[in-house]
Every structure is written in C-alpha cells, then in structure tokens.
Amino acid sequence: MWTTKTFLTKTKRGNVLKIVREHYLRDDLLCGSAACNVCPHKDDELVLDANPESICGLFDYNHYLVLDTNVVLHQIDVLEEDALKNVIILQTVLEEVKHQNTAIFQRLLEIIGNKKRNFYSFVNEHHKDTYVERKPGEKQNDRNDRAIRKAASWYASHLSIKNMAERFPQIVLLSDDENNRKLAQEEGIVACSVKDYIENVNGYAGLTDKLSKNVIPESCSKDALYPAHLTPTQIHAGIRNGKLHQGTFHASRDNFLEGNVTVTGYEKSILLQGHIGINRAIDGDIVAIEIFPQEEWRQPSDIVLEDKAEDPGDFLEEESQLLNTKKTVANDDICPTGKVVGIIRRKWRQYCGILMPSKFPGATRHLFTPAEKRIPRVRIETRQSDILASQRILVALDSWPRNSRYPLGHFVRSLGPIGDKNAENEVILLEHDVPHARFSEAVLACLPPDDWTIPEEEIKKRVDLRSICVCSVDPPGCTDIDDALHARRVGDRYEVGVHIADVTHFVRPHSALDREAAARATTVYLVDKRIDMVPDLLSSNLCSLRGGEERLAFSCVWEMDENANVLSTKFHKSVIKSRAAMTYEEAQIAIDTTSRNDEVATSLRTLNALAKKLKQRRLDNGALLLASPEIRFQVDSETHEPLEVQAKRILDTNSMVEEFMLLANVSVAERVAADYPQSALLRRHPAPPPANFHTFLKAARRQGFELDVSTNKSFSKSLNEAVIPERPFFNTLLRIMATRCMQQAVYFSSGSKTQEEYYHYGLACPIYTHFTSPIRRYADVVVHRLLAGALGADATHAALLDARAAQALCDNLNYRHRQAQLAGRASVALNTHILFKNREEIESAVVLAVKRNALQVLIPKYGLEGPLYLPSDKFLYNEEENIQICNDIILKTFDELTVRLTLDSTNLQHRKLVFQLVTPFIPGVSYEKEKADDDKMDVEIVEPKTNVKKRKEVSEPKKKKKSKK
Prior knowledge:
Structural class: alpha+beta
Largest sheet: 5 strands, parallel
Shape: globular
Strand content: 15-25%
Strand order of the largest sheet: 5-4-3-6-7
Distance between the termini: 73 Å
Number of helices: 23
Mean pLDDT: 86
Radius of gyration: 32 Å
C-alpha cells in the first residue's frame, strides 16, 4: 500500500515547483511485544516483556508506556534512570527529537540500545494502520500528536487480538500536554502526566528529584520581578528594522550583576548591568538586546562582586550600592549599554556544583550553587538534601519564570564526595564540556592489533630515513611524542628535517575513530591525567615517535645556509627510527657538554644554532615575545597528589624545538593554501583593537615607559626597551600583561577570509597553520590530509573541499581548544588548593591590576595569581589614576609587595587562595605574625625591594579634561 505527499517549493530563480513523493505503507511491521500473538517475531525481536510489572501506584495492571515528544525532550534525565522499562518510542517522536535537539536524540538512542531497558522503537510512520495524513490547515505539531494517539490506540487493540491471557499489557500514554491527554481520553486511551506518574512510582527513591520543572508562560507570571521577554515574532521584526540586535551573552566572572554582548556595528561589546538589564539571560544564551541612547552609556564596574546572599527569597536587592552605575562624560572607558529584551536561543547544559540546603526543617526547595561563577544559583526540589549536601552534584536547568529570582532546575546525579580527587576532576571535565567517556567498541574496532608492525609494502611507498640521526625533545614524562628533528651538514649547507607522527595512516576519513577524534578535537591535559583525542594504542605507542623504534612519519625537510635562510623545501611520507627521546634538560646538557661529539649532540648543536638565527629574524620582523605565568607540579606517582609547585623553567632547547615547529607550520600553510585556496585549514591571530591596550598603556606610562602599539613590530621594540635594571622581573611582568591584551588565535577555512586576514599578529607571519601535533590536535590531522592530497601521497576526499563543512569543523576546533585551555587552568587551581591545604607561605608578589576593592597580584615564584581584597574604610580608590591610597601609601600596578598566601576552605564550592598584605605594613590591614608564634613558624619572610611610593612623593593627581567622543 502507498500514499502520496505533494508540496510546492520555490527555486532560486523564483519558479514554483510541484513535488510529489510516494510514501509506501506496510502491514508486516513488528510490534516488538512478547505478549503479541499476531506478529511473526523472532526471539531477538521481542523487546517488550510479556508481563511488564507496574511500578506506578496509579495503575494496578501490567502496561507499556508510550511517550510523546515533549516528554523525551524535557524528561530525558528521568528516562535515563533504570526505573522506567517497557517503553514504546514511536518514529514520529524520534524524528521530532532529532530535529529539535541532537544531544537528547543521541541520549535516547543510547537508552534504546540498552537491552536491559526494554525500549522499543516502532516505525509508526510506515505502518498502514498507524500512519495519518496531515489535514488541511492542521499544524504539524497537532498532526504529530494525532499520530502518537493513533499509534497508542493501535497498540491497545493489536495486543488484545487473539490474546487469551487474562491480563495482557495495556497502553498508558505519558504526555504533559493537557489538551493531548484530554483528546486521548476521549479516544479511549489511558493518559497520564509525567509528574503524576513519577510521583507515584514505588521503590525508586530520588526519582522525583529528576523531574523537569514546567515552563511558566511569560504572560502568566504573577508578582513578576523581571520584564517579560518579547515573542519570537517581535524579536525578528525588531532585528530587521534595526531597533534590536542579536548576540551571545557573556556573564562577568568578577561581578554577577554584569555581562556583555558583542554585536555587529559596535567596536566595543554592549554592557549589560543589573538584574533587569540582564533579564534572566545566562552565560552562552543567544539574546536580543536593545541599546540605550549614547547619553546613558556607562563604564564597566570596577568592583569584584559575588552573589553571597544565603537565600534572599524571590526579591531583587538594591543594585545602586552594588554596581558602579554613575554616568560619566564619554571617555575611553565608556561602553555602549543596553538591556536584554528577549531570548533567541538558550544554550543551557547540565551544571556541576553543590547544594545549599534550606535552613527550614523538612523543606524540599533548596538552592544549588554552580561551580562556574558566571552561572546563577538554581532552585531545585529534592528530598535528599541531607545526603546531597556533602556531594558534588549535577543539575539541569528547566526554566526561569519572571517571578523567580533564580532559574528553576532539577537534580540529575551525584558525582562523588566534595573534595574527592576523582569527583573534582569529573567536575572540571563536565564543566568545560570535555568528552571523556571511554572509547566505544566501534572506535576500538578501527585500531590495528597491539603487535602491529610496519608492512614492507608500506615502507616501499615512503622515503626511508631510518639511517638519519633523528631525535625528539619533549617535556619530562611525555609519552605522546608528535615530533622529532634532525640536522646534518651537506657540503656547504645544512639539511634540517622536522618529522611528524603520521596519524592519518591509522585515522582514516569517516571512520568511527575519525568521527570521535573530530568530536574531541584535542587532547586535554590535566595536572595528573590526560584525556586523549585518540586511543592510547596510537597516542602512546604506534604513533608516538619513541626512541629506538621504527615509526611512520610525515617529514618536512629544508635546505638552509649558514644564516638559516631556507633555500628549498620538500615534503614526503617517511619511515624514521628515532635515536633518542630526550627531555628538554637532557638535550640542553648534551648541547652544553663540550666533550660530547656524538651524532645526536652534533645534530642538536646545529639545530640550536640555526634556531637562534630563525628566532632573531622573527623578532626583527615584529614577532611578539610574550609570556604567561606557567607552573609545573611535582606529583606523587602513586597517590597523584601534588607535592610541590614551581614556575616552569625555560631552556634554550624549548626555544629550539619551538622555532622549527613554527617554521614547519608556516611552510605547510603556504603549500596547502596554494593547492586548496578555498578550503585549506589555517590559523590566524587578529590584531587586538586599540581599546584593549588602554589600561595596560596607562600602567606602563606610570613606570616611565611610552609603549608604541601601532604595529606589532613597534610594540615588540617597545617591550624590548622597557627594562628596569634593578627589577629583572619587570620586563617579564610587562609581557604577561601584554599577553592579556591579545585576542584569541583561531582556526579558519582559507575561503572564508581575504588574504590580508590570514595574518598572524603574534608571530608576525602572513600565513600559518598547525601541522606538528596530530596525536593531540585534530586540526593537524586535517592539515596532514590536505598536504598528502597536494603531494599525491593520499586521496583527497570530498569533505576536504566542502567549504561549509570546513567552517563547521573550525568552529568546533576553536571551541574545544578554548575549553581544553580552561580545563587545564582549572586543574592547576584544584591542585594548588590541595597543595596549600593546611599550609601558608609568605612570598614576594607584584601588582597586576588595581580594582576598586582589590589588587590583582602575581607571585612570581609559583606563577600563582589572585585578588588581594582591600577594606574600603582604609583605602581610597582614585579611579582616574587607577591607584589605591591609604594615608601616605600609594598602591599601583607593577608595585612589589610581600603577601601571605593561605587557602580559604570555608566555601566548599569555591575554595580559594587568600592573599593577605604583609608589606608595606598598614595597621589593621597587613598580616602581623604574633610573637607567640615566632618559634612555630618555619616560613622565611622575603622582603622584596619595594617600589611602593609614599604619598608625599606623588603630587595629587590632576583631573584631566574629558573629551566628548
């Protein structure tokens, strides 16, 4: 049997096209029930039990559940629990869920694939007795609801045919749509809301906690605290006529009452302030905003402000005292301001955090505090607060009604005890959206056997470099070795090679392994563990360029003269055998030990000498030598607990490896862009807007340095000259602050930008890509495929030439790269907190920034930074000069201090390092070691050469005239 679907569509030329499609219907589709006496099932096709036990007190008979689409979309956390079994998922529901939310669709497929859950997918859209045509004028949603009711009714009658059992399974339709339930009951179908069903389930404690809270319509909110959001129609009309603007909301980490939205046409982000201005937007939401007239523009608040109220109830506090909302004449710090008028798309996810139990005995409503400071607290309902109060838990957001100060959500699952290392690492991975599940069987099936060796026929296809003295230089403990180097004299010239692990030999396009690597996009490095992009067999074994083992590689080989000028470049697939896998320190010792003249040491010395010339040429061209406070932990090999922390030591060999990796990346970028002008994967670093430098330049000027940031070359020259001989760390500090003025480097497809936009500002090179780390970056895997295609060493598959697919790939790469960086920093913070538990240090510190109520300070010894809060009754903040004044002491950026460093664990959610001033000594502010504790304290107090000036040496800052913008 078949039916036809006819619809009209318009072509690009404006012609109307009539399309008729035949839709075939069958009568032999199986129902999947072991209680059925009609369908010719095989044993493995019987998914639904013959006698499904009822666990719901509302129904004292055996039954199957049929779900509508909204139940799946909103109650997926309930469905993932083992309580619900013998559930029928209709094709109509599957297709709707797939269209509306791919993440929930994947979770639903996993449930269906679990044989223990007895979830059966029935293709009702192709069964002659369950398919329904859409009526004229009928909405698609109403047609789908009708199709679901039709299928539920068919199941009820189908199971009763020829069924001689006393009690064959009945059908219960679960729907939260009141109208749909009413229509179902009129048609003789038993229907129930999810809430009523779950609240009457027996034997599954905590299941009701996972119920999603229904969204309260904007127009129905009583006692509204927030303005109503505009409807989608109003938003689209406002954006079209230019009255509204669309952008992604980014909440402030420092002030819970501030955020910003970047929109087209404005150089600066649009500042949003206060509860009403933010109007229930949550970090990551795509919002519609209205921009205020210019006379209402303000500057961002310079207060560090956290939402510390225990449970203020549903009211909004007075914000004038919490925000720096004074209007100012236009100046460089002024930002356009606006307010959120509607939500275009929510970007909510599940959030980690802790429960703050209500102080009222027996209460079921509690506040949840997310680990991510940019996310507001969430109201959830649970009867397990006594148990959950000591756990890290996962919570999903459901809605944010106008009459609630906080969004509403529900408990998803517990992650483990607060403070447990595994639970805390799980929080880091979940909070930064790092895929970290075990590799699936489908992925593992793509791997070669453990004892795989290079086949002879593969060696014959490649350039055999096993006789060349190749070695790798990496950090200590590195097992995923991506790159190796060689250098040798050939006549009056040098041959220099960079050899990169040939991951693409094992990771073939469109395989399950390739799809998984593309989704993960990068290896994530935590302090005590690594989340691999590809399975360990590849990352630490078959692809890793280990010493003394033959490996497949992709080589970039240059011919150079004495001055490191590249005379020729060639690329080829190769086979190598590394002579040594060295650490940076081992390689440095080999270079510095004059008595060593073996092949490895000679190669390293040549590489080091050429690298210094390459680096100098880059710096002469305007490359920026920036810095960041990186630290390294010594970790116990058994417990994985941090033992000590120190700033990373940079050796010449670090720079040596970096220079040749940069050169290889540039050489490959030039080649792939020439061969694939529309779809080459490249990496660009946009020049920072002048506004980014404003505070930085003001601070440098106070130290007597006028930095020229007009170009990267002039900026680099200025940084080189900004030296204070008696303060050797000053220049490094300046470069750390300069790094924070930069924009993020990003991946892009060559066809999406003009040639001028390819430029990499930090490296001062016209074109750049990533080629040298394919074990840990998927971008490099793609670039390997592009280069292999350009050389004819491998086939070019269609996806490499698809510009739209390339852009989507770049978006994911940029997102995953950023999240991996943040996860790494969070891991450092976690281990720092563990290290400083029950410990205190008194160390030299430097002021990085001056805020209205705090100094941001850096401890050079550890590379740690954080806020040093200043009491407002003791300090006067001079906003124009960006300084803090207490009596005759002035504190400003770049000042050297001594601070006491301890860990504050009073807030279990946000343990934090506490920085307390020691010197300069200010009574009532600075830490004073009590005389009684002198003998107990074994901490050496370091008294730095302070640069803090007495107030009498600094004249009262003159008020500058503020020009109108």
